[in-house]
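[READ THE FOLD]
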Amino acid sequence: MTPPRVALFVTCLVDLHRPSIAFASISLLEAAGCTVEVPRAQTCCGQPAYNAGDRATARDLALGLLTAFSAYDYVVVPSGSCAGMLSRHLPSLFRDDPDLLPRAEALAAKTHELTAFLVDILHHTPTPPALTTTATYHDSCAGLRELGIKTQPRQLLAAVPGLTLAEMPEPELCCGFGGTFCVKYSDISTKMADNKTAGLETTEAQLLLGGDLGCLLHLAGRLSRQTTSTSPQPRLRHIAEILAGTTATTPAIGQPPPCG
């Protein structure tokens, strides 16, 4: 049987801030039997422009993606947000173009968020190294509400030896990031992040995990400014890093790399 040919859509935030997530994703996909490539022609998924109402720019970016990913069996994304843009919204940019709409729909149909792809498409459970600690999981809005991702990451984390998952009172509560939302409505965004970190504190978890780097960076920034808490701040990690066992070689999200 020919291994599925998978293109990894890296995402802008991962590329610029946390390449280790991309490498962890590649390791997981290859261990699941996939042939993985990272098309050099990929660009932004177009979501910032799309959400801002700039459909022309979003469409220009989408045109490049149609070409970059056309040859692959699947496109896998370590982000519910970007996966949602490609699989749910990209075809709407070509509704009035009968030539390009089928290509856009084909790309949307073969695009999957990483944990959903491992569980729902490949039916694969990684074999991560032991990690004896308590973690909690943040459900990002795009992954949960657009793509229905809820049980998949928890199923995968259940395979980590020693890991105890402690749920927050409201794991589905928005963290307040929302892309440009946190810039346009900073006061509201900050309050939402505070509500999230208050729930996080009740779990006494040493790890805060998630599937969207934007949410994790936002929460890491807020936690670094909450100096009144008496409990140690949890370390933040993308779920791919836990499943691929790369935590020993990379700093937690929001923490500087070790000197030397």
Remarks:
- Residues 5-121 form one domain.
- DSSP finds 13 helices and eight strands in the chain.
- The first strand starts at residue 5 and ends at 8.
